[in-house]
Input
Amino acid sequence: MYIVLLGAPGAGKGTQAAMLAEKTGLAQVASGDLFRKALKEETELGKIAKQYMEKGQLVPDEITIKMVLERLGKPDCTKGALLDGFPRNLEQAKALDNALAEQSKAIDKVINIKVSEAEVIKRLSRRWICGVCQAPYHETDAPPKVAGKCDRCGGELYQRADDKPETVQERLKVYEKETLPLIQYYKKSGKLVEVVSEGGPKAVHQKIMAALN
Ligand code: ADP
Ligand code: ZN
Output
């Protein structure tokens, strides 16, 4: 089972992918998390990715596709995966379809999580993330029980460098230009399901579960 989560930055892809991972037992494969890990470990990949991420731009396809396909080849992905943040343009979508087809596999469903631009800016500007398990928090809407600490694992919370307003604007622009065309692409294949990101994470999760069944 391969499920793709689509949506603007801040739509709640990561939150929903984590909830779905818990429910289905599928591995969560988040391209942004893979890049941030490489950045932290200062690998070659991390050094290249950093230059693009800082500006809110996409890391080149060649690098991104290779990294994600390698991840999908790991043992925990034999039953499938929840893809969060990948594919993000047509080139990546086609590469994924081809790689899966080579193994007689295919994407089962694509969930488009819809959110307004105003909401995205509000969410990202007050977002805090766990440095250990990547769980997201929001200063006013979803604060942690203890300030600065993750409820789930006790890890330190931090703010992403690319959540500053100028970079958020650029990420939204890139999303509209590169990622929005994927909605048509997946609509044509009959795999697209759309869900509005309102009412909090649990409500959205229920809408997704209903749409998947
Ligand atoms: P968000 O969806 O909130 O923008 P992500 O964590 O998915 O955040 O991505 C952060 C950054 O990592 C992107 O702005 C981009 O630079 C890089 N990135 C993540 N996924 C991809 C991808 N599929 N293709 C190219 N770059 C990516
Ligand atoms: Zn944590």
